[in-house]
Sequence to fold (96 residues):
Amino acid sequence: MSRGQAGDAAPRHLLFKGVAGLLLGFPLALWLSWLLTYGGWLPAFMPVRDQISMWLATLLWGALLCAAFMARSRAQCLGMFLLANAAAFAAWRVLQ
Fold:
């Protein structure tokens, strides 16, 4: 394969999407976990609420990492994660 063909660029896109999902998916998973567990979705008193929040953040982070590879381009991946982080942060600030 000669240099400059589409096949050469694929691994770089995958690496970028993986790193974006790893780095930007973590705060998004934390905010979504907080919103789901402390935002009124669960009963007011629950002894294992922190445990649920911890495991939910881990599952969400893994799902967001996988979702990063569904983006068509680097810009779409980055934009999707930045917009989702901004929305989750805004919701977190409103409900806090």
In short: Residues 13-95 form one domain.
